[in-house]
Amino acid sequence: MTEFSMLAIEPSDVAFQYLTDYFKTDPKITCIREDFLRVPVEPGTVDYIMSTGASHHSHTDGFLQRSAQWLQRGGYWLIADEMISPFETRKERHLNLLRHHLAYMAPLCFPWPTTDIDNRTPAEQEFVADFNNTVPQAKFLADNGDADEAERLCRELLSRTERHGFTTKVSEPQLAFWRLQWLELQALVAGLDYEVEQKTHPQHLIKMAEGAGLKCVAHERVYGTVGLTDDCAGTHVMAFQKI
Question: Are 130 and 157 in contact (CB under 8 A)?
């Protein structure tokens, strides 16, 4: 896509610093630190919109409508994002959300490598042990339908780990795997608490997009967390075309 000029939109101050540093030598890419929904629209002027992991972090209907306004007819809206399995009730959504996030986290709960010297601080050792003990237990409960108890364990784990106050500066590079779990745990609890965290299932998003004038022309689940089909939870890639 070297013939295109690109506009990169990022609302986070920290992420924007990384974004601008990464693209500082590319004159075809303009970076804007702003909420996507607040950027002034020039209707029908954009050929492609790409969204990675952002479609559920804002008002989903607004996100779809704004994208459709910007796109020219025949333009494409391309997304890669997490989605959960189909649900009918709020309780089913909570259970599916728990199962989805815990399925991302559980494979990272591996034993810390045994060496003669452990450079981790006591707080870091406690952090790793807490996740390794709690996440598999919470996943077992969620997989067996006990959403309330699994949710309780996750909330308590988040409360304990937030007291550590970890940043990107850690004593061992392997701790990145547990920091990733921490971020996933934060997303899990946010999904339970806040309607703005609009994680949904694929067919629901497809129907919402149709209401905005965007037709799904390609869909693949590239990483599955729950279930066996493309309609189930995991990381999904979708292509929509403005009709």
Answer: yes
